[in-house]
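Reply to thread "Modeling small-molecule complexes from scratch"

Following up on the discussion above, here's a worked example others can learn from. I took a protein sequence and the SMILES for zinc ion and predicted the complex. Inputs first:
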Amino acid sequence: MQQVIGATNYTWNGDSLSFSNSQHNIRFYQGRRKADVDGTTVWLNIQPNGSVPGGDWRLGAVDLDLFQLCVLPQAEGNPKPLRILLDPGHGGDDNGACSENPPLKEKELTLALAKRIAGHLKKAGLHVDLTRTRDSTLTLAERVRLARKKKADIFLSIHANHAGNTEATGVETYVLPPSGYPGTAEGSRPRGWQIGNRNDYHNTLLGFSIHSKLAVQTNATDRGLKRQSFFVLRETGCPAVLLEFGFLSNRGETLRMLTSSWQEQCAAAVTAGVTAYAKRLGALDQAVAEKRARDAEANERWRRHLASVKTNAPPLTPVSPPLPEPVATNPTYAASSPSAFFRGTNTAPAEVNTLIDFYTTGTLE
Ligand SMILES: [Zn+2]
């Protein structure tokens, strides 16, 4: 963590572990996938392994990687010009979730919100399209195809929530889980690689950029940046986010969502998030390219190592030599058992940098 955020201290209070420096304050909770980054809730792809008192606490490599490349870096450059496709959820035959009192259909709210967001994004100089501008029926596949047709750089799907528990409130932001990892919801099962996984880093930066602004600027309950393999997230070729703005099952929240002041706040927050993403895109592209080059180099070393082991071994049978074992281009995302991403060895009691050591040493196993 020292190398990720330059943190010089950490505190463990028996339940949570926090790292802080002048720029960041990050908290992880024992036995939970929940984390807190500078006041924003972020759900991890995998529960950290081990225990802090035991001195063997480890953040999953996939989460460490995403934190290091997408969540924590703050370097900003000139904003890249982006084409944004806004997707008001549902429409036509599909009402989505409904509130009875006051009467409100999700398809109406998402369209109204999308139009407000489009207005703010355009004012910020961005190019905006919508998947629908009226109450029309669109399949999920049609929405995804439009992203390709419109050459969208980012896809934002707009929704409102519903729950059996009428007390539930708040905003949540979804991005696709990395290949081989389950979604945030209890009982969610992992999937293999999907088209959307091409953009794992960009999805995370986009999701975090928007969610951190939304949760703060709208004063909503922060339900977190979550992961779920929704169709529009896994099948869209560009970075994609699905936003659940609030609960139609909660009367107070529904009344609030109907106000133009709330809708304006949301539109401003989404625009601030997209703008932050646009400014950090250059740095992320560079960091991702550098990481892929490091991975390729490590894989090449490993390939040569395997080849030399096989050359030196006495031949068992005179068959053509087998090819070296292929190594995943990006080992962090290799679809093997998640436990493979942790090292089981104990090191010194919970040093700040134990979190990062397995990442930076770069030794091959
Ligand atoms: Zn919906």
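What I'd highlight from this example: Residues 89-90, 96, 106, 159 surround zinc ion (CB under 6 Å). The two ends are 22 Å apart (CA to CA). Questions welcome below.
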